[in-house]
Write a structure and sequence with these properties.
Keywords: Cell shape, Cell wall biogenesis/degradation, Membrane, Peptidoglycan synthesis, Transferase, Transmembrane, Transmembrane helix
Pathway: Cell wall biogenesis; peptidoglycan biosynthesis
Helix content: 25-40%
Radius of gyration: 45 Å
Transmembrane segments: 21-41
Oligomer: single chain
Largest sheet: 5 strands, mixed
Domain L,D-TPase catalytic: 347-471
Active site: 426 (proton donor/acceptor), 447 (nucleophile)
């Protein structure tokens, strides 16, 4: 080949090599730039990224948060309802934050750094960032009032609620959607509007929404919860007895209030406990007593004995029902003699009305014996198993005398009360004699008249809570 033909070919080859090299350099630079971009967007938001309507592309987490807070703080939000302007609010009046609704770090972690060139060409990328309005209720209430919103003139939103039909079955009353606005619903409306980059908020978005809807899971959960309460099983174990409260009884105690919330009728529970006491407790039962002069006698019920305490037990039963489940336990017991082999014990006061004698036993030993005068005919002493509940010295007995039909005041040196109807043991210095048939002519109004000399000793021996057996 001639030299003249080779030279042009060499020139073309050199030019082509230069072009190839240039392309290789450009490609290498692009690759380097792409890699740098991947590294950069590991901790920076991709281009065209927005949070709450604020562009945060190419910013790191702290810069993005600061930018959003700065921009939103300058925002003026207008409020409208039915196409009518109601007013506006400058957001710098309130503090904005993102406490739980959006994790800025999560926003970075979810983005794909390797698509950053595509994101430049693609449309805006919105992060699910919903600002929270950090304002107390009074601040938001002032905003509501400033917009001329009067909830008394608006229809209130009502939750779907449960109600009881005549046959006792549960029914659901459908929710009602109103247009009332409270501080929480206003907060949510503002936050939602900001997250969407809105500068106008329709008050419809601030209408309070029902918590429970007819077909929602919440009302279904309430139904299931109420039925679980109805199925509560409670067994009371006491004094070697075991009583399971009937299921129908529990259902009868349960009811729904005006808000559809389960309530328990504690007064009805107390009535049930009274019935249990009448059947099982010693307070309402008769007592077998080994007397000094008459042997084994039956003493009527009085104020002595054990019983299920209605005031203490009713709230516990109500709590069990509201929690639901199965319970087997001892009820709240009050009074004396519960689970005792010898219910009355070996320290007591014995009043034998037939013999007109009072005896005091202490730790099984007879320590005092004295004649007495009991109630006159017409105001007889009421027999029963009692217990001392009060001791007084130098006091006045006051009451009404049905025989004289007058009020009376009678000073005594010693007074021991044992029932709730004014009966007690006291000295009677006006009595000239005691015992025998004295009660038939000069008997008391029901109290146990005792010689002063014996009464001094009785007062020292007897203690509050000591049984008093009168028969």
């Amino acid at each position: 080949m001639q030299t003249k033909q080779i030279i042009p070919l060499l020139k073309k080859l050199r030019a082509k090599n230069k072009q190839t090299f240039a392309l290789q350099v450009i490609l290498a630079l692009l690759i380097i730039l792409y890699i740098i971009g991947i590294i950069f967007y590991q901790n920076h938001y991709l281009p065209n990224t927005f949070a709450a309507g604020v562009p945060i592309g190419n910013r790191d987490q702290q810069e993005a948060l600061a930018e959003v807070k700065s921009k939103l703080g300058q925002e003026v939000v207008d409020f409208q309802e039915g196409g009518k302007d109601l007013g506006f609010v400058q957001l710098n009046q309130f503090e904005l934050d993102y406490p739980n609704s959006f994790d800025w770090q999560e926003g970075l972690a979810k983005q794909w750094a390797w698509v950053w060139p595509i994101q430049i060409l693609r449309g805006n990328r919105q992060l699910e960032a919903q600002p929270s309005l950090l304002a107390n209720d009074s601040q938001v209430d002032q905003l509501i009032q400033g917009l001329g919103i009067d909830n008394s003139q608006r229809e209130a939103t009502q939750n779907a609620r449960l109600t009881e039909a005549e046959d006792g079955s549960l029914q659901v009353i459908e929710e009602k959607y109103g247009n009332n606005i409270d501080s929480e619903s206003m907060r949510q409306a503002i936050a939602q509007g900001l997250s969407q980059g809105l500068d106008k908020i329709d008050l419809k978005t601030a209408y309070k929404q029902p918590k429970y809807t007819k077909d929602g899971k919440g009302i279904q959960d309430l139904q299931a919860d109420y039925q679980a309460k109805e199925a509560t099983q409670i067994t009371l174990e006491f004094n070697h007895e075991s009583v399971t409260i009937p299921q129908d009884q529990i259902k009868a105690w349960l009811h729904l209030d005006d808000q559809g919330q389960a309530q328990v009728d504690q007064e009805a529970i107390k009535d049930y406990i009274y019935q249990l006491n009448e059947t099982y407790s010693s307070l309402f039962g008769k007592h077998e007593f080994q007397s000094t002069y008459q042997g084994l006698v039956t003493v009527e019920s009085g104020t002595f004995g054990w019983y299920i305490d209605p005031d203490a037990e009713a709230p516990v039963i109500a709590e069990n029902i509201l929690k639901g489940g199965s319970y087997k336990r001892e009820p709240a017991i009050a009074g004396q003699g519960y689970m005792a082999e010898n219910e009355i014990g070996n320290s007591y006061v014995e009043v034998d009305l037939s013999h007109q004698m009072m005896l005091v036993y202490l730790e099984g030993a007879l320590v005092l014996e004295t004649p007495i005068v009991s109630g006159n005919i017409g105001t007889l002493t009421v027999p029963g198993a009692y217990q001392v509940w009060q001791k007084l010295e130098k006091t006045d007995l006051r009451g009404y005398n049905p025989r004289t039909e007058k009020e009376y005041v009678q000073p005594v040196d010693y007074w021991i009360a044992f029932d709730n109807n004014g009966q007690g043991i006291h000295d009677a210095q006006w009595q000239s004699q005691f015992g025998g048939n004295v009660y038939q002519s000069s008997g008391s109004l029901g109290c146990i008249n005792t010689p002063l000399s014996a009464m001094q000793e009785v007062f020292q021996i007897v203690y509050v809570g000591m049984p008093v057996m009168i028969f």
